[in-house]
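Sequence in, structure out. First:
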Amino acid sequence: MEKVRTVSDTKRDFYTQHTRPINSIYRRVVEELLVEIHLLSVNIHFRVDPIYCLGVVSSFERFMQGYRPEKDKESIFQAICHAVGSNPQEYRANADLALNLAKRQESIANLISWFNSPDPQEGEYPLAEAVKAIAQNPQFKYSRLFGIGLYTMISEIDSEFWRKQESKEEITTQLAEVFPVSAEKLQKDFDLYQSNLEKIQQMIIVLEEALEADRKKRERKSLELDVKKDDAQS
């Protein structure tokens, strides 16, 4: 019998893949995402699908906004995927399938209609098959990341949608009629993600202000040193 990987195994693999230190402010984000994906990967009812992949990719990109150095972000993402035995390129390709579907919809109603009766264009067949399989699977393992994938698709169609309370409740109910998940659970995850995004934006502003203040402080010190050198030479 194959041994089930533990969270410790996955974390160890991650830090073997990505050896550079991670900014302390973002470390919690990275480790929470890593643990969440790990727990799903060892669940017998869980299957990777394009909407879930979009949730993984978009939550990573949004929560890692402002990370420095910027070039380390892709290394971190790849290490997360490899640590759970997944292919980062496949995750991004699957995420693009879901996002591109949303981009070509004229309205959220059209997206719901597509979910109810998938009509795939060339290249969209894996997404269509996944949606059909999920809709017909009473043991579908719903995850917060799947919910974030749906949130991202809807936001792509209407970026102001989540401010419309009545419309939000109506669409959430319709999604729950397509996929085997309760409207209450979807609504809770949508609201939590929206709240977290707002907190991240506030954090980024604080970080940028701190970085700017530090830059000005270093420039001031450098200028003072230059003045002292000039005084010493005169």
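Second:
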Amino acid sequence: MDKNTLVGLLLIGAIFIGFSYLNAPSEAEIEAAKKRQDSIAFVQNQKAAEEIKQEVEQTNSEEVKIESPVYTELTGNDSILSIEKDKIYGAFASSAQKEGKHIVVETDKFRLTFNTLGGKIEKVELLDYLTYEGKQLVLFDSTSQFNLNFFTKDSKNIYTDELVFDTDAQDIKITGSDSKSISFKLNAGAGRYLEYNYQIKGDDYQLKFDVNLVGMNQVLDNRTGEMYLNWSVNAPNQEKSLKSQHEVTTIFYMYKGDEVDDLTATSDEKEEYEASIKWVSLKQQFFNSAIIADDFFSKSRAFAQTETDETSSDYVKRMTTALTIPVVGTEIESFGMSLYLGPNDYDLLTTYENGLHDIINLGWGIFGWVNKYAVIPVFDFLDGFDMNYGIIILILTILLKLVLSPITYKTYLSGAKMRVLKPEINELNEKYKDDAMKKQQAMMSLYKQTGVNPLSGCIPMLIQMPILIAMFRFFPASIQLRQESFLWADDLSSYDSIFNFPEGFSIPFYGDHVSLFTILMAISLAFYTKMNSSMTMGAASEGPMAQQMKIMTYLMPVMMLFFFNSYSAGLSYYYFLANVISMGQTLLIRKMFINEDAIRAKIETNKKRPQAKKKSGFQKRLEEMAKQKGYQAPKKK
């Protein structure tokens, strides 16, 4: 081989390698290919059926012509179709039809549209709720998928949503406490069948759903000992803010040990279940579709996945779950489940006693406790008077502030004491400005003599924090506020807007609208922070902490203006009321309950008293902190 030939071969090889690299599939193409693997068996069977069809056609073309060509063609196609069905579906071939029929069941709560193709609920409309645009609220529609997947003894890979179920059900309306059982059967011949049985009540969002197997141990491949339930919901856009729905629409699930977990709502995620599953909820902002096992779903081949299409304005997110149903292999067996198709109403979900209420984020720890046992009961009590929700929020805020008024008084009293001591503290700051150790010792001595604890004002404020944070969780999660109007706000569960920017224009981190409740909240926060800082920081108005408080006085309202602009109008309204009422309480306490002259006299009296030898807990903490920094407390003479 000469040199030119060798170089030519190398160049050809390089070209092939480069061509392969440049034409390699992208990540998106790889992902798409991965999704197609779920139905690969079906595709392979279709190809096999096509080959059989071609063989039959070829055979027919070689046969002797018959006088009736039309009849020959029909007979040939029927034979081909029968062979195709047998090849793909085996014992279920007689159910392999292209179209099913729809059956509508309406109750007091929802309208269910069943399809005999798959024997499934194809569409759910909630009758008591509308979308933000005023249309009937659809929980999910025909773009969603629901099927059982299993293997047969003759190696057929069956998906039930490709087969038509038999039923004698007709359109029906169920009301009140009445109930109706609807059965869909997938026949496998010789008295063998798979049955979906739905038990529907007229006044309940939850319905019973059983999968019954009769004689299927002769059909199913019992080596796997399981069937696979695949459920995928394309969550429709139902609310005012699509962005807010993206942030809370996700999948929740409960493990066998009552542990509830969920997928990250702010990004797409896929996660395999780590243990047996009790229930799975495909949760949207105010509604959810859940499947609950009477016993438990097995964990094998089970997963949850969310996918967001940012370009769609009709749908929020696709949520998919795969669950495994254990199969024993007896002549007759059943796997019981329930379906919840309704609102995320905390009180309602609690009545089912299955932990489904945990999908509502009321806050963790003490914050959730405050909502569950304090805020929600009071809110429900006020709701019973049939008042506008804006008035209910006002009354709720006043009641909470009255309960917290002793804490507010303690906070203000501590601030008043520090203001009285301000001249002496300023003197110590000036006297020991170059000696931090002596200044701290002098401060400790002053606090001990006067009986003032500078931290006493912080503790009451910390006690109020759980309520503030609890309300932050309560209002966005409260379905009672959904589409309830007040003043200029048309929906207290979403943002209010007095001005919308031109379409396509949005201020980064602010949004495409102007919320008046947020502006009022920010202004009231600025005034309250200024008033509160002058009350609590009077004794140290010249120090670095005072400078930080001044910065926060102006910075915090601006931050809240950006943060709350797209948040619940009910929440901004509550914080606005809380700030205004707090300022009123402060002025009232200052005028009627606090006498700074009396406080000054008491402090002077404390100075003259013989000091107890026992050190206060606060003094001990200060001295320990000083020792850690290398300072030594002055010895008594």
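Remark: The mean pLDDT is 81.
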